[in-house]
Design a protein that fits this description.
Layout (H helix, E strand, L loop, with lengths): L4 H12 L4 E4 L4 E4 L5 H11 L8 E4 L4 H5 L7 H6 L5 E5 L16 E5 L3 H10 L3 E5 L16 H6 L2 E2 L14 E5 L5 E5 L1
Parallel strand pairs: 1-7, 3-5, 4-8
Antiparallel strand pairs: 1-2, 2-6, 3-6, 4-5, 8-9
Helix pairs in contact: 1-5
Length: 190
C-alpha cells in the first residue's frame, strides 16, 4: 500500500460528492475538484475570490484522455508533450464535456498531463479530469510549499491531503503554452 493511499481514498470520496480538496501537484499545492461539476468549480471561484472569466487548469493523466475532452486534439500532441522538460500546461481549443465554468469564453481550456505519482493515481482513479488551481486567494502570491497556504484556504476545502505537507522544497507554477495552428508554441507563462 502506498504512503498516500488513505489520502487518495479520502479525496475520491470528497471529489465524487462535489467537494473541494487541497493537494500537492506536480508543481505547487492546488485546490481541486471534479472538472465536470459546475457547482464544485463555482465553489473554487468563491473560495479563491476569483472572477469566473479567468479559467482554471485541468489535470489529466494520459494523452488519450484528451480525445474525450477536446473536439480536435492536435494529432502530434503526444510527441509535443514528450519534449517538455518540466510541468507544462497547454491551452487547447474546442473543449468538450467539462463544466462550462472551466472553459474560457473563447472555447479554450488549459490542460496539464501530470507525471507526479500522487496526482496520476488520483486522476486515474477519479476517472475524470481534476481542476488544479493555486492554493491562494486570487491576487496573492501562490504558495511555494504547504506551510505558506493561508488558513482561509485550508479551512475552505473539504479535505486537506496529508501527503507531502512536510516537503518544504519551494515549487513553481507550471509553464503555460498555446500551440498555434502552424504548430509553433507561444509561451504565455514561463
Amino acid at each position: 500500500m502506498t504512503d498516500f493511499e488513505n489520502d487518495i481514498v479520502q479525496c475520491l470520496s470528497v471529489l465524487r460528492s462535489g467537494g473541494l480538496i487541497l493537494y500537492p501537484t506536480d508543481t505547487i499545492w492546488g485546490i481541486g475538484c471534479d472538472a465536470t461539476s459546475e457547482t464544485a468549480v463555482r465553489r473554487i471561484y468563491e473560495l479563491k475570490q476569483r472572477d469566473e472569466s479567468k479559467s482554471l487548469v485541468i489535470l489529466m493523466a494520459d494523452p488519450r484522455d484528451l480525445v474525450k475532452y477536446l473536439s480536435h486534439p492536435p494529432p502530434d500532441i503526444t510527441d509535443t508533450i514528450a519534449t517538455f522538460d518540466r510541468p507544462t500546461t497547454v491551452i487547447y481549443e474546442g473543449a468538450l464535456h467539462l463544466a462550462p465554468n472551466v472553459i474560457h469564453e473563447d472555447g479554450t481550456v488549459a490542460i496539464r498531463l501530470v507525471q507526479d505519482t500522487f496526482c496520476r493515481h488520483l486522476v486515474k482513479r477519479l476517472r475524470k479530469p481534476l481542476v488544479s488551481t493555486s492554493a491562494n486567494i486570487s491576487g496573492a502570491p501562490p504558495p511555494a510549499n504547504f506551510p505558506e497556504i493561508s488558513p482561509e484556504i485550508r479551512n475552505g476545502v473539504d479535505y486537506v491531503v496529508e501527503y507531502r505537507q512536510d516537503d518544504l522544497v519551494p515549487r513553481q507554477p507550471s509553464r503555460i503554452v498555446r500551440i498555434q495552428p502552424d504548430g509553433r508554441q507561444q509561451i504565455l507563462r514561463n
